[in-house]
Design brief:
By secondary structure, the chain is an alpha+beta fold. Helix content is 35%, strand content 22%. It is built from nine helices and 13 strands. The structure holds (3R)-3-hydroxy-3-methyl-5-(phosphonooxy)pentanoic acid. (3R)-3-hydroxy-3-methyl-5-(phosphonooxy)pentanoic acid is lined by residues 30, 33-34, 49, 119, 121, 153-155, 206-207, 297-298. Residues 30, 33-34, 49, 119, 121, 153-155, 206-207, 297-298 line the site of (3R)-3-hydroxy-3-methyl-5-(phosphonooxy)pentanoic acid (PMV).
Length: 331
C-alpha cells in the first residue's frame, strides 16, 4: 500500500479541467500530541491526537499551472530553490499531476513562522490540499480532504476544521479511517498565547525526530498508554470546562512527549535557554495563583493556555505574546 493507491481510491480516473485553485487553512495546536507513526509512508499515527485550531493564523495558497518546465514555489514572496522544503512540496504535488509534464505554480502566504514548531506544515499542507480540490474540481468532503492532507504532513489532517479536532488513529492498513473528527464543544473563553522564542529552522525536523524516538527511546514504550489516558481525561475536563485540569493534562502531555525525545539516541532537545526560563516563569506564576499553562511542539517556542479573564495579567507578564481566540465571536 503506497500513497498512489490511496489517491486512486479517493480520486478515481476523471478528466480534469484545471482552473486556479485558492484556499486558506488555519493552523492547529495539538493539546494531546501526535508523536510516532505506525506507517511512515502514509503518515499513520500510533495513537489518536487532539488539537485546537487557531482560526485566523494559517496559510493562504494559490495554485495555477506553471508555464515553465519546473514547479514554481513561492512562500511569502520568496521563491523556494531546490532544497528540503521545496522537495517536500514537490513530492506531494507529484501525487496529483494530471499528466507527467504538468507543472504547478504555487504561491503561499503564511502568517505564522515556518518550521519553528508552530505547526506551519499543518496549515501549509491542508491549504494546498484545499487548493488542489478547487483546482481540479474534486468536490471531496472534509474527511477525504483530511486523509489527503495527512499524506503531506500528519498534523495537517486536523486543520480542515475550526475548534477542537480529534485525529482518529484508525485500524485500516490503507489509513482510509484515519482522519480528523471535529468536536461540537466550544470554549469561547479559552485563549492561546504564541510565544516566539526563535524563528530559526529546527535543527531536526519532526519527521526524523519522531522516527528516531520510536526506534531508540525506551520511554516511548509507555507513550501510547499515556496518550490514551490523557485523551480520556482531557475530554472529560473539556465537558466540565474544568480549565486547570484541562490545561495541566495538555502541559503534562507535551512534557512527556519531550521526555521521549530526550531519551532518544542521540538525544533530541528542542529547548533553548529561553524556553527553560519561560517554563520556569510559567510555573512560578502558577504558584502565585495565575492559571497559565503551556504546550510545546517540535521546536523551542511555547504556546500559553489561559482564560479570557486573565488576559491583562498575561499581557503584563508576557508582553511579546500574541494572543489568539480560538472561538472568535463565540463561534
Ligand atoms: O505533522 P508533523 O509531521 O509536522 O508532526 C507534528 C508533530 C507535533 O507538532 C510535535 C505534534 C502534533 O500533534 O502536532
Amino acid at each position: 500500500m503506497n500513497k498512489q493507491d490511496i489517491i486512486k481510491n479517493l480520486l478515481p480516473q476523471r478528466t480534469y479541467e484545471p482552473k486556479i485553485g485558492e484556499a486558506f487553512a488555519p493552523t492547529n495546536i495539538a493539546l494531546i500530541k501526535y508523536w510516532g507513526k505506525r506507517n511512515d509512508e502514509l503518515h499513520l499515527p500510533v495513537t489518536n491526537s487532539f488539537s485546537i485550531t487557531l482560526p485566523r493564523k494559517g496559510t493562504r495558497t494559490i495554485l495555477d499551472i506553471s508555464t515553465t518546465n519546473q514547479d514554481q514555489i513561492t512562500i511569502n514572496n520568496q521563491s523556494l530553490g531546490e532544497g528540503k522544503a521545496y522537495q517536500k512540496i514537490v513530492d506531494y504535488l507529484n501525487l496529483f499531476r494530471p499528466y507527467p509534464t504538468f507543472r504547478f505554480s504555487l504561491k503561499s502566504y503564511s502568517n505564522i513562522p515556518m518550521a519553528a514548531g508552530l505547526a506551519s506544515s499543518a496549515s501549509g499542507f491542508s491549504a494546498l490540499t484545499l487548493a488542489l480540490n478547487e483546482m481540479f474540481s474534486w468536490n471531496l468532503d472534509r474527511a477525504q480532504l483530511s486523509i489527503l492532507a495527512r499524506l503531506g504532513s500528519g498534523s495537517a489532517c486536523r486543520s480542515l476544521w475550526n475548534g477542537f479536532v480529534e485525529w482518529q488513529v484508525g485500524e485500516r492498513e490503507d489509513g482510509l479511517d484515519s482522519y480528523g473528527i471535529p468536536y461540537s464543544e466550544k470554549w469561547p473563553e479559552l485563549r492561546i498565547g504564541l510565544l516566539i522564542i526563535s524563528e530559526n529552522e529546527k535543527h531536526i525536523g519532526s519527521r526524523e525526530a519522531m522516527q528516531s524516538t520510536v526506534q531508540t527511546s525506551k520511554l516511548y514504550e509507555t507513550w501510547p498508554q499515556q496518550v490514551n489516558e490523557d485523551l480520556s481525561a482531557i475530554k472529560s475536563a473539556l465537558k466540565e470546562k474544568a480549565f486547570n485540569r484541562f490545561a495541566s493534562i495538555a502541559e503534562n502531555n507535551a512534557r512527556a512527549m519531550h521526555a521521549t525525545m530526550h531519551d532518544a539516541t542521540p538525544s533530541i532537545v528542542y529547548n533553548l535557554p529561553e524556553t527553560l526560563a519561560l517554563q520556569q516563569k510559567i510555573w512560578d506564576l502558577r504558584e502565585q495563583g495565575l492559571d497559565v499553562y503551556y504546550t510545546q511542539d517540535a521546536g523551542p517556542n511555547l504556546k500559553l493556555l489561559f482564560l479570557e479573564r486573565d488576559i491583562e495579567a498575561i499581557k503584563e507578564h508576557f508582553p511579546n505574546c500574541e494572543i489568539v481566540a480560538p472561538f472568535p465571536n463565540n463561534k
